[in-house]
Amino acid sequence: MLANEEAVPMSGDLAHAIARLLFADTAAARPEEQAREIFAGLQQGKIDRSLLTENCNSYFTDQALKEFGNSLGSLGIPKEFKQTDKLERGGMTLRVFELTFPERKLEIWERIMPDGKIEQYQVGPK
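Now predict its structure.
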């Protein structure tokens, strides 16, 4: 990808989008399934703590889990749940997932340590 502009990230964004189309991450099925299971648990106010680092576990307090259940539970099962990006950064793997519901879209940002434990699992609007 060549561009005559360095002030905006357009060339990098476009190159990443093309690469995702050309080189599908066939190893994404298991992480996608795990992210989906975690999300379904959060909809019920639950989480499998064995998947998380100590730091991430400290974030998911009983109150936080209750709030996740209250805010996500009514959305139901996503019509679509797919990984849209994967980057290596700061010694962690960042995976981004897009969830489609009838009336809204959400994104999940998941940062995974080299040992496979999840350091961050964030849910937000798309």
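Strands lie at 80-89, 92-100, 105-112, 118-125.
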